[in-house]
Amino acid sequence: MRKRIFLIHVFLLLVIAGFTTQALAAEVIKWDLQRGAANPGSILFAVVEDFAKRVKATSGGRLDITPHPGGSICPNTKELEAVHNGVMQIGISSCGWQLYLIPTASVFCAPVGGMDGRGMRLWYEKGDGMKLWNKATEKFNIVTLPGVPVQSFPPEVWVFSKVPINSLKDLKGKKMRAMGDGGAILNRLGMSVANIVPTELYEAMMRGVIDMCEATGPYNAIESAYQEVAKYWYFSGSRANSDIGFAWVNKDAWAKLPVDLQEILKVELARLGQNDYDTQFIRDTRSISDLEGKYGVKVAKLPADIDNTLLAEAEKFYAEKCAKDPFFKEVYTNQKAFQQQYDRFVDLISFTR
Fold it and tell me: Residue 139 class from Cβ within 10 Å (0-12 exposed, 13-18 middle, 19+ buried)?
């Protein structure tokens, strides 16, 4: 009788343990994600929504990430700081916006005269870029995933302007929104530069607070209706040949994730990065005809004297930075050495139609 009672107790314990195991296995981890400068309905936000759906499906519903547009949880451009402080578990943003926290941030993002998105991505993935970025951010309570950029845009529109630009003299004294190193160098060339968050640019242009701005590629700009406030769009990769951004995960939240969910997150973030670039590139490509035909925007290459003057001033600017900051010199020198090989090969395989 005692043996029978004992066996019943054992059986009940096993049943309870089984239910507990199932409950633990089915536990749902909920995270919040904000992408900087992503408005609801924009392609920037759509790719993040798609990412969140894939993570939920791949994890069997165990990791449920809610995507939020820029400014929903923390101020736009402050995503790294918010993740560091635990305000949200994951943030995606341009690393150039982190210049107020990280003195080298802009050279990690869009150095003037730098590589295109493919080259920058290779520097991070196959060169020393990611190791140096992790060194630059080691004091923050973040993990940068998946080890490569999740944002590496094609070259931005060099400038959206309300007035025609035929030479460098047309920029002198003009008020322009520009960020990072590009903004600092343009300021040295006689422009009046302001850093305005992307969500406020349309109104700033409409009200005449600024005469021109840089912000993004053509497709995203059409989504933001820049064609209504700027009828002259000039293209060049000299100022921002890409715009590198990362996914930052709160280090404490990351440590609590089971290993399999960590792997799912890394794989899906890498997929997000490629999807983001491909989507941006093909939509930018197709948007040019709409700009000229549908919206009456003048599309043109930036005058060569502006490119040449900008790049010459950039060399002086970066030499000064390197002289003042040993770590900046380490990053910039490493990146330029990689770029020299990259540009040489691209030049060898390129041809003019």
Answer: exposed
Same domain, 193 and 312: yes
SS3 of the chain: helix, strand, coil, percent, to 5 = 55, 15, 30
Q: Is 302 helix (H, G, I), strand (E, B) or coil?
A: coil
Write the Ramachandran bin of 208: left for phi over 0, alpha for psi from -120 to 50, otherwise beta. left
Would you mind telling me the total number of residues written for the chain in this entry? 353
DSSP state of 155: P
Contact of 266 with 147, CB cutoff 8 Å: yes
Residues 6+ positions from 53 with CB-CB distance below 8 Å: none
> CA 38 → CA 48, 77, 88, 198, 244, distances in Å?
9, 10, 16, 9, 15
Residue 196 Cα distances to 66, 85, 128, 176, angstroms = 27, 24, 32, 10
CA of residue 316 relative to chain centroid, distance: 26
101 phi, psi to nearest 5 deg: -105, -35
Structure tokens, 260: 């399999």
**Counting Cβ atoms within 10 Å, is residue 99 exposed (0-12), middle (13-18) or buried (19+)?**
buried
For the chain, residues with pLDDT lower than 50 are: 1-2, 4-24
Token reading at 324: 């003042």
Could you give the angle at which helices 117-126 and 129-136 cross, rounded to 10 degrees?
80
Q: pLDDT tens digits, residue range 253-290?
A: 999 999 999 999 999 999 999 998 999 999 999 999 99
Same-domain pairing of 52 and 171: no
Give me 35's structure tokens. 């992408």
How far is residue 14 from each of residues 1, 10, 11, 27, measured CA to CA in Å?
20, 6, 5, 20
Label residue 37 left, alpha or beta by phi (over 0 means left) and psi (-120 to 50 means alpha): left
Q: 77 and 212 in one domain?
A: no
**The residue to which tokens 């993004």 are assigned:** 216
Question: Are residues 273 and 292 located together in one domain of the fold?
Answer: no
Residue 1 falls within a domain, yes or no? no
36 token code pair: 């900087």
- Predicted TM-score (pTM) above 0.70: yes
